Amino acid sequence: MLSIVILGTGNLAKHLFDAFLKAEDVHVAQVVGRNKEALSQFSEQCSVSNDFGTIADADVYLIAVKDDAIAEVASHLLTKKGVVAHTSGAIGLEVIQTDNKGVFYPLQTFTKGKPVSFQSIPICVEAESKQSLELLRTLARSISENVHHIDSEQRKKLHLAAVFVNNFTNYLYGIGESICLDEGLTFDLLKPLILETAEKVQHLTPKEAQTGPARRNDSESMEAHLELLNDEQHITLYKLLSQAIKKRHEEEL
Amino acid sequence: MLSIVILGTGNLAKHLFDAFLKAEDVHVAQVVGRNKEALSQFSEQCSVSNDFGTIADADVYLIAVKDDAIAEVASHLLTKKGVVAHTSGAIGLEVIQTDNKGVFYPLQTFTKGKPVSFQSIPICVEAESKQSLELLRTLARSISENVHHIDSEQRKKLHLAAVFVNNFTNYLYGIGESICLDEGLTFDLLKPLILETAEKVQHLTPKEAQTGPARRNDSESMEAHLELLNDEQHITLYKLLSQAIKKRHEEEL
Questions:
Q1: What number of other Cβ atoms are within 10 A of residue A225's Cβ?
Q2: Residue spans per domain, chain B
Q3: Quick one: residue B70, left, alpha or beta (phi over 0 = left, psi -120 to 50 = alpha)?
Q4: ipTM
Q5: Strand, helix or coil at B198?
């Protein structure tokens, strides 16, 4: 049985908590956070504390707080014997000052109130010592079948890649929505397409899945599209992305 | 019972054919196309012809060919009494010269060999006469529960919106993939995130779903990301999209 303490009470902390509650061989010993109201979500099922001076002993301490608060939270764990791991994609291992440092990064976007199955979520683990790495790996495997050893440099790149496929993609959804709404059309019309676009690259590479006027170098359609756009920023993005797609596929045309 | 003829043998023609074969009250009378080899996919289940001079009589003629071939295919249907409809998002109704003209546009991306359920796919119908519109609506309802009357101007905008959420989004997936591969990481790591990003906007608006450094105006993280990027075009896109997200959300910060 592995015991863990979760530090933090936000979105990721809650999703991790829910996942570990269901995991066999893992005991959530405590949830620690400053926000008393947020702690109340956990208090029925687990011991909670809003005092970083009274952190329970555990095998692993998972720090699930904002990036710029990790170092401060970790500073309360200097005398602990368990592994102290943060859960951030963008922050290196070195931000943690204890010897038993590690990273436990679930690569997913978490929405408040929307349950998610951890089973297929990649969990990227890293640690300074081999023993800590094995412990984090075991912990990760208790909730996911998709566990990877990824070092800090790789993880930062992965986090950057995630910005493109998640943050930026979501912004493109927003452009699609605004084009619809301007025309009195519901965004619902685009939703099946959005899902299928994501489904497609589960089996094909993005290059194989690419379609559209830019892919075919169909200048007439692209010019017609540009004439329909009013927003300067949408025009700039349309040109830039079309050019990039054209360039990527020109050898095939 | 409605009878239809499908003109064209490509990807969309095949997906429509498969859907209508299963539909009650619809009879696919014939598939017509130039490409004999492509016709063979249909010939076991349906009458086929590669001669545009011998098109069977039907209630509806669905033209599922490349945009620039629609007018020519329609020209073979001038004496027909049924409704002649094309299936393109980008082309107006007027390209068809017959009186009984219409549009039957399924808003989805179709992949060769990957079956798709039409049930939830939006089908956008348009026609010059009310009677033809009703006929197309009935036909659309035989395969989908998501049928909309959309005029040519709206449809062109919808098609443009689809380019943003499908073609451009897919290109961003490709950037994510290339960042992973450069680092020796598998694109598989990003796949659950890609799916969940698409799932998220099925229930939230893109604005509600937006996360990331630009959303939080976290300059430090954005600068760190820019330092990790080598490709000039990725840098330009990163800056442009981050700026746009920042601008969209600045009133909330």
A1: 24
A2: 2-150, 155-252
A3: alpha
A4: 0.96
A5: helix
CB B146 within 8 A of CB B121: yes
Which 177-236 residues of chain A touch chain B by CB within 8 A? 177, 179-180, 182-185, 187-207, 209-215, 218, 220-221, 224-225, 228-229, 233-234, 236
User: How many Å apart are CA A100 and CA A133, to the nearest integer?
Assistant: 10
Do the Cβ atoms of A215 and B170 come closer than 8 Å? no
Interatomic CA distance for residues A77 and A84, integer angstroms: 7
A-chain residues within 8 Å CB-CB of B144?
A: none
Break chain A down into helix, strand, coil percent, rounded to 5.
55, 15, 35
> Which helix (H) or strand (E) element contains residue B3?
strand B2-7
Taking the C-alpha atoms of residue B221 and residue B213, their distance in angstroms, rounded to an integer, is 6
pLDDT digits (tens, 9 = 90+) for A127-186: 999 999 999 999 999 999 999 999 999 999 999 999 999 999 999 999 999 999 999 999
pLDDT at B99 over 90: no
pLDDT for B244 = 96
Interchain contact, B213 vs A154, CB within 8 Å? no
For B107-176, the three-class secondary structure string (H helix, E strand, C coil) is CCCCCCCCCCCHHHCCEEEEECCHHHHHHHHHHHHCCCCCEEECCHHHHHHHHHHHHHHHHHHHHHHHHH
Size of interface A-B (CB pairs under 8 A): 293
Q: Hey, are the CB atoms on B183 and A153 less than 8 Å from each other?
A: yes
Q: Rounded to whole angstroms, how far apart are CA atoms B145 and A96?
A: 54
Q: Class of A155-252 per CATH?
A: mainly alpha
CATH architecture of the domain covering B2-150: 3-Layer(aba) Sandwich (3.40)
- Structure tokens belonging to residue B26: 């619809």
CB atoms within 10 A of CB B88: 21
pLDDT tens for each residue of A39-69: 999 999 999 999 999 999 999 999 999 999 9
Q: For residue B235, which amino acid is it? A: I
Residue of A160, A234, A248 lying closest to B179 (CB–CB): A160
Evaluate whether B139 touches A170 at the Cβ level (below 8 Å). Answer: no
Per the listing, tokens 């943003």 go with B164
The radius of gyration of chain A's CA atoms, rounded to the nearest angstrom, is: 22
List A residues 129-168 in contact with B (Cβ-Cβ < 8 A).
146, 148, 150, 153-154, 156-158, 160-168
DSSP string, A84-137: EEE--SSS-GGG--SSSEEEEEE-S---TT----GGGS-EEEEESSHHHHHHHH
